[in-house]
């Protein structure tokens, strides 16, 4: 049958046979190999994600603890503010400034700093500080007294800035 074919027809038939064999080889082995290589790449990426997951879990737990801590510290700051307000009313002191609570992480501990500015007489301010120490609302880290002239009343006022520190262990 192929004896009557010309070289041109034989080359075409050979080319068709090669194409057919390549398609059969692709279907039988290459296609499966390529799919396995792609599957292997996907599984390697998943393995890397699984290896990194403990670190991500630690980071997320730390963030969760910080957020939980901020909520409980905010409640603690509200309690402190309530105590200072109650004592301040008794001794005729005015709270003039309460900035946001500062939270710093030092190793495995959290340092909470509350700064409160109070306006009033020196003796009443000392009584307030004494009661704060008795109620143990944290350690008083520093006191800053400042005389300021009130431009409206043209009187000199005493402003006292109290820094109260609390140290909490960061639970991990």
Under the CATH scheme, which architecture of the domain at 82-169 would be assigned? Answer: 2-Layer Sandwich
Helix content: 55-70%
Number of helices: 2
- The top-level CATH class of the domain at 82-169 is Alpha Beta
pLDDT < 50 runs, ≥5 residues = none
- CATH homologous superfamily designation of the domain at 82-169: Ribosomal protein S6/Translation elongation factor EF1B
Shape: rod-shaped
* Main sheet characteristics: 5 strands, antiparallel
Care to count the β-strands?
Answer: 5
What gap, in angstroms, lies between the N and C termini? Answer: 84 Å
- What string, H for helix and E for strand, traces the elements in order? HEEEHEE
Mind telling me the C-alpha Rg? 38 Å
| Structural class assignment | alpha+beta
Strand content: 25-35%
Average per-residue pLDDT, rounded, comes to: 82
User: What's the multimeric state?
Assistant: single chain
At the fold tier of CATH, the topology name of the domain at 82-169 is Alpha-Beta Plaits
Give a written overview of the molecule.
This protein has 172 residues and is an alpha+beta fold. It has a domain at 82-169: Alpha-Beta Plaits (2-Layer Sandwich), CATH 3.30.70.60. The chain is 57% helix and 27% strand. It has helices at 7-90, 122-135; strands at 94-97, 102-106, 109-119, 139-150, 155-169. Strands 1, 2, 3, 4 and 5 form a 5-stranded antiparallel sheet that branches. Helix 1 crosses helix 2 (122-135). The model has no long low-confidence stretch (mean pLDDT 82).
Secondary-structure map:
Layout: H1 7-90, E1 94-97, E2 102-106, E3 109-119, H2 122-135, E4 139-150, E5 155-169
Antiparallel strand pairs: 1-3, 2-3, 3-5, 4-5
């Amino acid at each position: 049958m192929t004896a009557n074919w010309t070289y041109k027809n034989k080359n075409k038939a050979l080319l068709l046979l090669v194409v057919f064999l390549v398609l059969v080889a692709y279907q039988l082995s290459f296609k499966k190999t390529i799919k396995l290589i792609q599957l292997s790449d996907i599984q390697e990426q998943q393995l890397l994600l699984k290896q990194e997951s403990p670190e991500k879990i630690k980071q997320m737990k730390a963030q969760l603890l910080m957020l939980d801590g901020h909520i409980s510290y905010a409640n603690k700051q509200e309690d402190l503010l309530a105590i200072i307000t109650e004592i301040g009313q008794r001794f005729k002191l005015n709270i003039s400034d309460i900035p946001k609570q500062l939270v710093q992480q030092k190793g495995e501990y959290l340092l909470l700093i509350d700064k409160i500015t109070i306006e009033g007489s020196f003796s009443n301010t000392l009584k307030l500080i004494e009661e704060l120490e008795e109620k143990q609302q944290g350690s008083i880290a520093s006191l800053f007294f400042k005389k300021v002239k009130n431009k409206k009343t043209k009187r000199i006022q005493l402003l006292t800035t109290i820094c109260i520190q609390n140290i909490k262990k960061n639970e991990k």
